[in-house]
Amino acid sequence: LSTWSAVPAGPPDPILGITEAFKADKDSRRINLGVGAYRDEDGKPYVLNAVKKAEEKITAAKLDKEYLPITGLSGFTSNAAKLAYGADSVPRNQNAIAVTQTISGTGALRIGGTFLARHYPHSKTIYVPTPTWGNHIPLFKDSGLEVKFYRYFDKKTVGLDFEGLKEDLQNAPEGAIVLLHACAHNPTGVDPTQSQWKDISDIVAEKKLFPFFDMAYQGFASGSTDRDAFAVRYFVSQGHQIALSQSFAKNMGLYGERVGAFSLTTASEEERKRVDSQLKIIVRPMYSNPPLHGAHIANTILSDPELYQEWEGEVKGMADRIINMRERLYQLLSNDFRTPGEWSHVKSQIGMFSFTGLNKEQCKVLAEKAHIYMTMDGRISMAGLNGRNIEYFAKSVDAAVR
Ligand code: PMP
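Above: the input record for the complex with 4'-deoxy-4'-aminopyridoxal-5'-phosphate. Below: its predicted structure, written as tokens.
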């Protein structure tokens, strides 16, 4: 008998499973709208020019391959914090932000979850929105937190259920942790307005909740890294202590390089040093220290004014292409094909994804009849659409809902 004979087969990953089905489909019209990775106008993966130039600089500098410190490349972590919190952030200028380089956003959430499970004194419960990025739930459970939910999305309006959100946060036990998508909410593409963020900040203060921001798409929502950091910076300006996960997968196109950061704002430099020491104690037995190359790329871009400017332009270019696709899809569905239903949410949603409102049956039909692959909750990656396939997509959606 094999040692592993009793190991049960787990379910396939819902998103990676879609890519498998897509790859197996040989129809020339096939479209993969499952995975959240940017594609250019030709449907191809996109390596940013700023990244290529940074790599040339790194190669020319003939750097060694020594280990990084436990919390990563210090130039990178400092620049990442500056990008998120802003140059004039108070805790930043007080040297009071504890930050560690992480294995992209997922690693940042996991280190953050573990830190909170170990050191956050008031609660072991984290509230996440319904729906949320699917990986949040197992990730926080594996970190040792209990996961509960707050209302977020209103199926009827295909928009934010702001009343439900406020009620659920108000009814959460004092001191609970609350996970907030900083911008470009995944999977819905629905974000609170700035005025709604202010109300959320008030409830978080009143109920003494602890805000943990997941910022996986800074720059990707509006095209401006400053604008997309509004919620994070506003909360800090209101005196909240926050936890923050950052990813450079999307905004620098560094998906497979795994570049991210986890940070906590603290009350003083002295406190920050104690928190830093505990972050190291979490990282060291888990993976010892983070990978080098991607951090060098991101740090080169963030610290060279010319590359930084080029990068900002490219982030805006990616965001604008997606915004154009939203406009075009809306026009096709509501004007050209007069598709039954209300489609303005396609335009008002933001970031990589659109929650189309298509149901499971319709998604199935699209996969089986039209070779169009998306998650069964009706989420599409807008980046998978381009000038060549968007009409076919809209026509297929039209056929599926009639
Ligand atoms: N948070 C959210 C909301 C995401 O959508 C993603 C990527 N799909 C991540 C975190 C983490 O991505 P990564 O680990 O690739 O940075």
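Notes for the reader.
The mean pLDDT is 96.
The first strand starts at residue 31 and ends at 32.
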